[in-house]
Amino acid sequence: MINTVEQNIIQILSRLDIPGNAAKIYIYLLKNGPSTAYAVSKKSGVNNAVVYRELERLKSRNLVYQLGIKPLKYEAINKDGLLKTLKKQNKAEEKLLEKSLKVILEGKKNLISIRIDDYNDLIAEIKKEIEAAKKKILIRLWSEEMIVLEKELRRAESKGVSIQLLSFTPLENPIGETFSYNIDPHSFTENGERGIALFIDEERVIVGNKIGRYPIHAMLTNDPLITESIKDQILLDVELVKNKREMRKE
Fold this sequence. Notes:
Blueprint: H1 4-13, H2 20-32, E1 35-36, H3 37-43, H4 48-60, E2 64-67, E3 73-76, H5 79-104, E4 113-116, H6 119-132, E5 136-141, H7 143-158, E6 162-167, E7 177-180, E8 194-200, E9 204-211, E10 217-221, H8 224-249
Parallel strand pairs: 5-6, 6-7
Antiparallel strand pairs: 1-3, 2-3, 4-10, 5-8, 8-9, 9-10
Helix pairs in contact: 1-2, 2-4, 3-4, 6-7
């Protein structure tokens, strides 16, 4: 009866295109040393009708060697030889997989989606994305987050990055093209209502809410559907603020 350890070896050998009967023969030879085909058929549990065929298969895979003439015996490569063969096979499979994936994904952008649960991690990721921005930043935030992100935003502005900033609460020091709903922050007694959205270079977004609680709900992604949706939301808010300005002028 095959035990769990031997079953594991049989499963691994299947990766070398070694079916169950051949794997059983290999394990028998590995445990018992050089043996005749007759001994293998009697003690390995493999039917005599297929023993010679499977021994030839193992020989062709360099897992078994033929010894002597009379009596003709077979010997399995030792564990070091098997491990070396498996590593070589794994490396070949890795290269094939890498090449195949490259062909399949050629011209396509790798999608990322990272969940963020901690406020400090969220701020760190936002700062990193602002620093990496090359052309454009759209950001919607509250004054609390503006305080901790102001340095990075001003640095981006000094590098020529276009910034459109929408704040729910009044800002003392605008950056780039700034818009505000001018909501009184004291009217919100529940910090969990705060949120933030960042859109970078037509490629990536970070969106978060329930700021002030743990865990917060936030995500960094470059999924085109999500990035376009967040971009549209921010721009819609900007247009609403612009319309309010125009109405006040009238």
